[in-house]
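[job 0412] stage=complex_fold ligand=HMH status=START
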Amino acid sequence: MLFSEKLRKEADEIYQGIFRHPFVEGLGKGDLDPESIIHYVKADFEYLNAFMNIYGLAIAKSTRREDMAYFHEQIAFVLNGEIHPHNNLCRVAGVAYDDLKGFPLPPTADHYVSHMKSTALTGSMGEILAALLPCPWTYYEIGKYLMETVQPKPDHPFYEWITFYAEDEVGQITNELRRRLDTWAKGVGPDELEKAKVAFLKSCQLEYRFWDMAITKEIWPFSVEQEVTTS
Ligand SMILES: Cc1ncc(CO)c(N)n1
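[job 0412] stage=complex_fold status=DONE, emitting structure tokens
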């Protein structure tokens, strides 16, 4: 069994939990609370900015030009592609996307970003790939799950969101990340594999919590000034 297949098996409980999460259910039913959508988009815009930072850290650690080209391409996808599902969410919530940019990360999103950043700074290439993988992989599976269970028509409020993540492009991104991780896994010992597994599972848990964060509109306990990562 490939390393990524083993990871997927270990994380199955988390994936199943994500498919049944109230936010994902709300995407399928089309009845999400607009305030939860807004909370999610604010956090996700900054999360995706941090994701690009992490690809940059991966480039800094790359020793092969081919790896540099790969991470560079992935940055372009986040930069230009993921605005579409965000625009869909904003339209349904009745807000302008620009008004949701530049907010500090809520605790869970901050935790997720810190996990990926520290992995990128201190971990091996395999650990970095493992920490990044749940991002496209859980969304790709959510997209496919909603396509199958809801079979949305173009007039479904989240048609664009669902079809974006269920599309081949996100599938290919997931498969390429898996392929790279599986290639890396063939050349390392059990200790290295264990560390990558831990990084992967933590990202899966934090994917689940990211949806919770949106439903509960999680905030910091005190409203003091906070760092904003981008403008
Ligand atoms: C938190 C999170 N995970 C995954 C994706 C998919 O790219 C996203 N937009 N946000």
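The chain has a mean pLDDT of 96.
[job 0412] exit 0
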